[in-house]
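fyi for ur records
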Amino acid sequence: MANPLLKVSGLNVFYGDAQALWDISFQVQAGEIFSIIGSNGSGKSTILKTLSGLMRPASGQVAFNGSRIDGNSAARIVDGGISLVPEGRGLFSSLTVAENLELGAFTRRARPWMKQTIEQLSDTFQIIRTRSRQLAGTMSGGEQQMLAIAKALMSKPKLLMLDEPSLGLAPMVVKTVFEIVAALKAQGVTILLVEQNVHHALRIADRVCVIKTGQITMIGTGKELLSDPEIQKAYLGTLR
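which gave:
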């Protein structure tokens, strides 16, 4: 693929002496939803932590928007246009919705546009208009997930990374979360989605890679993997 927004090449990552990722390589094109699926402990979240600068690779390269970022700090990576919604959401529970959003616009690039960004996001995230003074810690899990995504978008990222956005949510709330993800894509946001809800991930993603014990075993379109017998057997059970 020519000129990808994100290019990951030969990434090897360790936790101490234990290797967590083995020769990870993939590309994300601007405007697409690229999903990483796999079982618990397969290395999905480690990929996102490495891309966001929270972990350093032992070898390999990460290029974003044409420039290498694998040696950059987490703050510099966010300022360069990558934002992560971590598993667990990363909200400040004792602060209000509005205060969490303001903290999301901490980068030099985003702060001058803070009020304008909040106004734009309020069309997609109703909680911004209706719950701006509510403490984040008093909100439901689904509302907190919406706030976490909105907070990540406050930095005006070129790439939004979501780590298990459906985790622990009721089925109807999961449906709403994925509707939001689809709406963001329609608005031109590029999304890297790590998700254990494989059925939803395959239906929404343009392309998907499967990771098993720290290694990529398959890459294809969501439609291709949804109809693949091995994927159906391993992850989907009786779902079709």
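The chain has a mean pLDDT of 92. thats all i got for now
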